Amino acid sequence: xxxxxxxxxxxxxxxxxxxxxxxxxxxxxxxxxxxxxxxxxxxxxxxxxxxxxxxxxxxxxxxxxxxxxxxxxxxxxxxxxxxxxxxxxxxxxxxxxxxxxxxxxxxxxxxxxxxxxxxxxxxxxxxxxxxxxxxxxxxxxxxxxxxxxxxxxxxxxxxxxxxxxxxxxxxxxxxxxxxxxxxxxxxxxxxxxxxxxxxxxxxxxxxxxxxxxxxxxxxxxxxxxxxxxxxxxxxxxxxxxxxxxxxxxxxxxxxxxxxxxxxxxxxxxxxxxxxxxxxxxxxxxxxxxxxxxxxxxxxxxxxxxxxxxxxxxxxxxxxxxxxx
Length: 324
Hints:
The protein has 324 residues and is mainly alpha-helical.
């Protein structure tokens, strides 16, 4: 057997064990951070073995894609771990569908008490309105429109966004005459598996628009590319980081106008519609599930007191943000 194929098979086996283990263990009454990190590290090993197989041309493209789909199938059966963001997504979607401005009303506001649903008590920061951009808010209405307001419905929507993202990545690879097996870099990535499918985070939405924007820009369709970039920005504002690199001077007016138009329907009551964004900017913990796990492990070593463990965990999250 060729070394590249052997590496691929070992990586696929590690991935199957990792995500099957996590899916089974996540339904335990009190899943431990040790279990979370153990299965995560096994997922990292699967990814690294897969990368090595791709580098040695031992990863068949169809098998790479099928394995990525299979991994996600396991994660669809997992319970979200150390995360509750999906309750906020469902809440925001319900408010928007009812014609209520989610930037002005927090989950505990008496005026929206009639819109609460089973599980809404689990929303994080229930005294704070939403901080998510308008296009993400629109996506959150879809589970209600489809009659299935649940974490699984959100996961399927986000996997659909992943499909668009992967299709654009395939177009980029083909245009550069690169092997499509390199899709493994995303398809097998443990963070994509855990945070998108496992914990139902909507990062594929802005990333898909970002990939579409890059493709359109490279095809010479700057107006359409700027429009897609604006859609990415109003899905998650970090897409603005690439605007200075991609936009020419004549692209900026269109980008800014489109972003402003998306926010315009929500601008009410002075600047209070920004209250949620201001609150999350000062209180929010990046990648909360991993943050809490790191903090727990630091405290478990008994080498750190609580303030030091908190500071170290925050520093590690900053490094993770910059690196990932």
